[in-house]
Protein backbone atom coordinates (compact mmCIF):
# COMPACT_ATOMS: atom_id res chain seq x y z
CA UNK A 1 0.00 0.00 0.00
CA UNK A 2 2.91 2.35 0.70
CA UNK A 3 3.95 2.16 -2.93
CA UNK A 4 0.40 2.89 -4.06
CA UNK A 5 0.22 5.99 -1.85
CA UNK A 6 3.55 7.21 -3.19
CA UNK A 7 2.16 7.19 -6.72
CA UNK A 8 0.08 10.30 -6.07
CA UNK A 9 3.29 12.28 -5.48
CA UNK A 10 4.21 11.87 -9.15
CA UNK A 11 1.22 13.71 -10.54
CA UNK A 12 1.94 16.88 -12.44
CA UNK A 13 -0.08 20.05 -12.12
CA UNK A 14 -2.16 21.40 -14.97
CA UNK A 15 -5.62 21.73 -16.46
CA UNK A 16 -7.32 18.34 -16.14
CA UNK A 17 -11.00 17.55 -16.36
CA UNK A 18 -12.50 17.90 -12.81
CA UNK A 19 -13.91 14.37 -12.90
CA UNK A 20 -10.53 12.98 -13.93
CA UNK A 21 -8.81 15.07 -11.25
CA UNK A 22 -11.12 13.70 -8.56
CA UNK A 23 -10.30 10.12 -9.55
CA UNK A 24 -6.53 10.51 -9.10
CA UNK A 25 -6.33 10.61 -5.25
CA UNK A 26 -9.04 7.94 -4.98
CA UNK A 27 -7.09 5.53 -7.17
CA UNK A 28 -3.91 6.30 -5.23
CA UNK A 29 -5.62 5.28 -1.97
CA UNK A 30 -6.46 1.80 -3.26
CA UNK A 31 -4.21 -1.24 -3.10
CA UNK A 32 -3.73 -2.95 -6.47
CA UNK A 33 -2.39 -6.08 -4.77
CA UNK A 34 -5.52 -6.50 -2.62
CA UNK A 35 -7.93 -8.88 -4.38
CA UNK A 36 -10.90 -6.93 -3.00
CA UNK A 37 -9.85 -3.66 -4.64
CA UNK A 38 -7.79 -4.74 -7.66
CA UNK A 39 -10.85 -4.83 -9.92
CA UNK A 40 -11.95 -1.40 -8.73
CA UNK A 41 -8.53 0.05 -9.57
CA UNK A 42 -8.63 -1.35 -13.09
CA UNK A 43 -12.19 -0.14 -13.67
CA UNK A 44 -11.40 3.41 -12.51
CA UNK A 45 -8.23 3.52 -14.59
CA UNK A 46 -10.23 2.49 -17.64
CA UNK A 47 -12.73 5.28 -16.94
CA UNK A 48 -9.89 7.74 -16.41
CA UNK A 49 -8.39 7.12 -19.82
CA UNK A 50 -11.77 7.35 -21.55
CA UNK A 51 -12.41 10.72 -19.89
CA UNK A 52 -8.92 11.92 -20.64
CA UNK A 53 -9.12 10.99 -24.30
CA UNK A 54 -12.42 12.83 -24.70
CA UNK A 55 -11.25 15.91 -22.79
CA UNK A 56 -10.37 19.09 -24.69
CA UNK A 57 -7.77 19.99 -22.07
CA UNK A 58 -4.09 19.68 -23.01
CA UNK A 59 -2.67 16.20 -22.57
CA UNK A 60 -0.60 16.01 -19.38
CA UNK A 61 1.54 13.01 -18.51
CA UNK A 62 0.84 11.68 -15.03
CA UNK A 63 1.51 8.54 -13.04
CA UNK A 64 -1.71 7.11 -14.48
CA UNK A 65 -0.20 7.31 -17.95
CA UNK A 66 2.60 5.12 -16.63
CA UNK A 67 0.05 2.78 -15.12
CA UNK A 68 -1.53 2.42 -18.55
CA UNK A 69 1.87 1.12 -19.64
CA UNK A 70 1.90 -1.13 -16.54
CA UNK A 71 4.74 0.82 -14.93
CA UNK A 72 4.02 1.32 -11.24
CA UNK A 73 5.87 3.58 -8.77
CA UNK A 74 7.44 2.88 -5.39
CA UNK A 75 9.51 5.01 -3.05
CA UNK A 76 13.18 5.11 -2.17
CA UNK A 77 13.87 6.04 1.45
CA UNK A 78 17.23 6.17 3.20
CA UNK A 79 17.71 3.10 5.36
CA UNK A 80 18.88 5.17 8.34
CA UNK A 81 21.10 8.08 9.35
CA UNK A 82 24.15 5.85 8.97
CA UNK A 83 23.30 5.19 5.32
CA UNK A 84 22.85 8.90 4.72
CA UNK A 85 26.25 9.58 6.34
CA UNK A 86 27.91 6.94 4.13
CA UNK A 87 26.43 8.58 1.03
CA UNK A 88 27.84 11.94 2.09
CA UNK A 89 31.23 10.37 2.73
CA UNK A 90 31.26 8.76 -0.71
CA UNK A 91 30.22 12.00 -2.41
CA UNK A 92 32.91 14.01 -0.67
CA UNK A 93 35.83 11.71 -1.45
CA UNK A 94 38.71 13.32 -3.28
CA UNK A 95 40.86 11.64 -5.92
CA UNK A 96 44.60 12.30 -6.36
CA UNK A 97 45.44 15.74 -7.70
CA UNK A 98 41.95 16.41 -9.07
CA UNK A 99 41.52 20.21 -9.09
CA UNK A 100 37.72 20.02 -9.11
CA UNK A 101 37.57 19.40 -5.37
CA UNK A 102 34.32 19.57 -3.44
CA UNK A 103 35.28 23.07 -2.25
CA UNK A 104 35.99 24.24 -5.81
CA UNK A 105 32.78 22.66 -7.09
CA UNK A 106 30.77 24.56 -4.46
CA UNK A 107 32.56 27.76 -5.51
CA UNK A 108 31.57 27.19 -9.15
CA UNK A 109 27.97 26.52 -8.14
CA UNK A 110 27.97 29.78 -6.17
CA UNK A 111 29.36 31.60 -9.22
CA UNK A 112 26.63 30.19 -11.48
CA UNK A 113 23.93 31.18 -9.01
CA UNK A 114 25.37 34.67 -8.70
CA UNK A 115 25.49 35.41 -12.42
CA UNK A 116 23.04 33.04 -14.13
CA UNK A 117 19.27 32.93 -13.73
CA UNK A 118 18.40 29.42 -12.60
CA UNK A 119 14.75 30.19 -13.32
CA UNK A 120 15.69 29.39 -16.92
CA UNK A 121 16.48 25.94 -18.25
CA UNK A 122 19.86 27.22 -19.45
CA UNK A 123 20.76 28.26 -15.90
CA UNK A 124 19.60 24.94 -14.53
CA UNK A 125 21.70 23.04 -17.05
CA UNK A 126 24.79 25.05 -16.19
CA UNK A 127 24.47 23.86 -12.59
CA UNK A 128 23.98 20.30 -13.83
CA UNK A 129 27.08 20.61 -16.01
CA UNK A 130 29.23 21.65 -13.04
CA UNK A 131 28.00 18.73 -10.94
CA UNK A 132 28.50 16.21 -13.74
CA UNK A 133 32.04 17.47 -14.35
CA UNK A 134 32.83 16.91 -10.67
CA UNK A 135 31.35 13.42 -10.97
CA UNK A 136 33.43 12.65 -14.06
CA UNK A 137 36.61 13.95 -12.46
CA UNK A 138 36.38 11.61 -9.47
CA UNK A 139 35.06 8.50 -11.24
CA UNK A 140 37.25 8.43 -14.36
CA UNK A 141 40.26 6.11 -14.09
CA UNK A 142 42.96 4.70 -16.35
CA UNK A 143 40.66 1.78 -17.19
CA UNK A 144 37.24 3.45 -17.31
CA UNK A 145 36.15 6.91 -18.37
CA UNK A 146 32.92 8.76 -17.67
CA UNK A 147 31.57 10.53 -20.77
CA UNK A 148 28.76 13.10 -20.63
CA UNK A 149 26.57 13.33 -23.73
CA UNK A 150 24.11 16.27 -23.64
CA UNK A 151 20.95 16.27 -25.78
CA UNK A 152 21.11 12.54 -26.41
CA UNK A 153 17.57 12.31 -27.78
CA UNK A 154 18.22 15.02 -30.37
CA UNK A 155 21.49 13.37 -31.43
CA UNK A 156 19.92 9.93 -31.61
CA UNK A 157 16.86 10.98 -33.65
CA UNK A 158 16.68 9.02 -36.94
CA UNK A 159 16.27 10.73 -40.36
CA UNK A 160 12.48 10.33 -40.26
CA UNK A 161 12.42 12.69 -37.31
CA UNK A 162 10.82 10.23 -34.91
CA UNK A 163 12.94 9.46 -31.83
CA UNK A 164 13.13 5.78 -31.02
CA UNK A 165 12.81 6.45 -27.29
CA UNK A 166 9.69 7.61 -25.51
CA UNK A 167 10.23 10.71 -23.46
CA UNK A 168 13.52 12.56 -23.73
CA UNK A 169 17.08 12.13 -22.53
CA UNK A 170 18.82 15.46 -21.92
CA UNK A 171 21.99 13.82 -20.62
CA UNK A 172 23.32 10.34 -21.17
CA UNK A 173 26.19 9.69 -18.73
CA UNK A 174 28.13 6.72 -20.09
CA UNK A 175 30.85 4.72 -18.38
CA UNK A 176 32.98 2.87 -20.93
CA UNK A 177 36.59 1.60 -21.21
CA UNK A 178 38.96 4.59 -21.39
CA UNK A 179 40.34 3.58 -24.79
CA UNK A 180 36.92 4.36 -26.32
CA UNK A 181 36.39 7.73 -24.63
CA UNK A 182 37.57 9.80 -27.62
CA UNK A 183 35.23 7.89 -29.93
CA UNK A 184 32.29 8.25 -27.52
CA UNK A 185 32.75 12.02 -27.30
CA UNK A 186 33.32 12.57 -31.03
CA UNK A 187 30.61 10.21 -32.30
CA UNK A 188 28.45 9.27 -29.29
CA UNK A 189 25.54 7.78 -31.24
CA UNK A 190 27.71 5.59 -33.43
CA UNK A 191 29.96 4.49 -30.57
CA UNK A 192 27.29 3.80 -27.95
CA UNK A 193 25.11 1.92 -30.42
CA UNK A 194 27.92 -0.42 -31.41
CA UNK A 195 27.03 -3.98 -30.32
CA UNK A 196 30.42 -4.51 -28.70
CA UNK A 197 30.15 -1.29 -26.67
CA UNK A 198 26.46 -1.49 -25.84
CA UNK A 199 27.11 -3.88 -22.97
CA UNK A 200 30.76 -3.02 -22.32
CA UNK A 201 29.82 -0.50 -19.65
CA UNK A 202 26.77 1.27 -18.32
CA UNK A 203 24.71 4.41 -18.90
CA UNK A 204 22.42 6.60 -16.84
CA UNK A 205 19.55 8.75 -18.09
CA UNK A 206 19.10 12.31 -16.80
CA UNK A 207 16.38 14.83 -17.57
CA UNK A 208 16.93 18.57 -17.01
CA UNK A 209 13.87 20.64 -16.13
CA UNK A 210 13.02 23.84 -14.32
CA UNK A 211 11.95 23.36 -10.71
CA UNK A 212 8.23 23.61 -11.53
CA UNK A 213 8.56 20.85 -14.16
CA UNK A 214 10.39 18.23 -12.08
CA UNK A 215 7.40 15.92 -11.68
CA UNK A 216 6.50 15.88 -15.37
CA UNK A 217 10.18 15.41 -16.15
CA UNK A 218 10.27 12.35 -13.92
CA UNK A 219 7.46 10.75 -15.89
CA UNK A 220 9.29 11.42 -19.16
CA UNK A 221 12.59 10.07 -17.80
CA UNK A 222 10.95 6.85 -16.60
CA UNK A 223 9.33 6.38 -20.01
CA UNK A 224 12.72 6.92 -21.66
CA UNK A 225 14.28 4.34 -19.32
CA UNK A 226 11.58 1.81 -20.17
CA UNK A 227 12.15 2.34 -23.89
CA UNK A 228 15.93 2.12 -23.48
CA UNK A 229 15.63 -1.18 -21.61
CA UNK A 230 13.41 -2.57 -24.36
CA UNK A 231 15.90 -1.56 -27.05
CA UNK A 232 18.99 -2.81 -25.24
CA UNK A 233 17.32 -5.88 -23.67
CA UNK A 234 18.43 -4.80 -20.21
CA UNK A 235 16.34 -5.42 -17.10
CA UNK A 236 17.14 -2.28 -15.11
CA UNK A 237 18.15 1.35 -15.49
CA UNK A 238 18.78 4.30 -13.22
CA UNK A 239 18.55 8.04 -13.69
CA UNK A 240 17.28 11.30 -12.29
CA UNK A 241 15.41 14.46 -13.15
CA UNK A 242 16.94 17.71 -11.94
CA UNK A 243 16.90 21.47 -12.12
CA UNK A 244 20.46 21.56 -10.77
CA UNK A 245 19.37 22.65 -7.30
CA UNK A 246 16.94 19.76 -6.75
CA UNK A 247 17.31 16.10 -7.76
CA UNK A 248 14.78 13.26 -7.92
CA UNK A 249 16.56 9.94 -8.38
CA UNK A 250 14.85 6.80 -9.68
CA UNK A 251 15.58 3.18 -10.52
CA UNK A 252 13.54 1.32 -13.16
CA UNK A 253 12.94 -2.42 -13.52
CA UNK A 254 11.50 -3.89 -16.71
CA UNK A 255 8.62 -6.41 -16.45
CA UNK A 256 9.52 -10.03 -15.83
CA UNK A 257 7.16 -12.58 -17.35
CA UNK A 258 3.59 -11.52 -16.57
CA UNK A 259 4.74 -9.17 -13.82
CA UNK A 260 4.44 -5.40 -14.25
CA UNK A 261 7.31 -2.95 -14.62
CA UNK A 262 8.17 -0.69 -11.71
CA UNK A 263 10.24 2.28 -10.72
CA UNK A 264 11.29 3.56 -7.31
CA UNK A 265 12.00 7.24 -6.71
CA UNK A 266 13.38 9.48 -4.00
CA UNK A 267 11.84 12.67 -2.77
CA UNK A 268 13.29 15.85 -4.28
CA UNK A 269 16.72 16.36 -2.71
CA UNK A 270 17.94 19.97 -2.41
CA UNK A 271 21.68 20.68 -2.64
CA UNK A 272 21.05 23.62 -0.31
CA UNK A 273 21.57 27.38 -0.27
CA UNK A 274 25.30 27.01 0.35
CA UNK A 275 25.54 23.63 -1.45
CA UNK A 276 25.74 22.01 1.99
CA UNK A 277 24.04 18.89 0.61
CA UNK A 278 26.17 18.64 -2.53
CA UNK A 279 28.10 15.69 -1.09
CA UNK A 280 24.79 13.86 -0.53
CA UNK A 281 23.70 14.33 -4.15
CA UNK A 282 27.16 13.42 -5.44
CA UNK A 283 27.21 10.27 -3.31
CA UNK A 284 23.94 9.10 -4.83
CA UNK A 285 25.22 9.92 -8.32
CA UNK A 286 28.29 7.78 -7.67
CA UNK A 287 26.07 4.91 -6.53
CA UNK A 288 23.86 5.36 -9.60
CA UNK A 289 26.89 5.05 -11.89
CA UNK A 290 28.38 2.08 -10.05
CA UNK A 291 25.05 0.20 -9.88
CA UNK A 292 23.42 1.49 -13.06
CA UNK A 293 21.72 -1.80 -13.91
CA UNK A 294 20.57 -2.83 -10.43
CA UNK A 295 17.04 -2.13 -9.24
CA UNK A 296 17.29 -3.72 -5.82
CA UNK A 297 18.21 -4.40 -3.17
CA UNK A 298 19.68 -0.92 -2.86
CA UNK A 299 22.85 -0.10 -0.94
CA UNK A 300 21.58 3.02 0.80
CA UNK A 301 17.80 2.94 0.27
CA UNK A 302 14.80 0.82 1.11
CA UNK A 303 12.25 0.32 -1.67
CA UNK A 304 8.83 1.05 -0.14
Short characterization:
This protein is 45% helix and 18% strand. It is of the alpha+beta class and 304 residues long.
Structure explained in plain terms:
This protein has 304 residues and is of the alpha+beta class. It folds into two domains: 2-74, no CATH class; 79-303, no CATH class. The protein has 13 helices and nine strands. Strand 4 (202-208), helix 12 (214-232) and strand 5 (236-242) form a beta-alpha-beta unit. Helix 6 runs antiparallel to helix 7. It is globular.
Task: Describe this protein with a few key phrases.
304 residues; alpha+beta; 2 domains; 9-stranded mixed beta sheet; disordered N terminus
Number of domains: 2
Strand content: 15-25%
The pLDDT mean sits at 84
Number of strands: 9
* Largest sheet entry: 9 strands, mixed
Order of helices and strands: HHHHEHHHEHEHHHEHEEEEHE
How far apart, in Å, are the first and last alpha carbons?
9 Å
Helix tally equals: 13
Shape: globular
Helical content class: 40-55%
The structural class is alpha+beta
How do the strands and helices of this protein lay out in sequence?
Elements: H1 2-6, H2 18-28, H3 35-54, H4 63-68, E1 71-78, H5 81-91, H6 102-115, H7 121-139, E2 144-150, H8 152-155, E3 171-177, H9 181-186, H10 188-192, H11 195-198, E4 202-208, H12 214-232, E5 236-242, E6 246-253, E7 261-265, E8 269-270, H13 278-290, E9 301-303
Parallel strand pairs: 1-7, 4-5
Antiparallel strand pairs: 1-9, 2-3, 3-4, 5-6, 6-7, 6-8
Helix pairs in contact: 2-3, 5-13, 6-7
Amino acid sequence: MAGQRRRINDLTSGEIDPVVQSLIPFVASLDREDEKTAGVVEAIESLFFKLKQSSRAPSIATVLDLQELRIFPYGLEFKDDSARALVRQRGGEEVGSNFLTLVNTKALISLVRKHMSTASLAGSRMLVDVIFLRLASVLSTDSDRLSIVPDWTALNTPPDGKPSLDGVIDYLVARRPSKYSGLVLSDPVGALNRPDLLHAGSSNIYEARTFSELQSGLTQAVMASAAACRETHKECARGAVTCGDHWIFFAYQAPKGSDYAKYARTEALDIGKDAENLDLVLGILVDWIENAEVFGPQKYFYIV
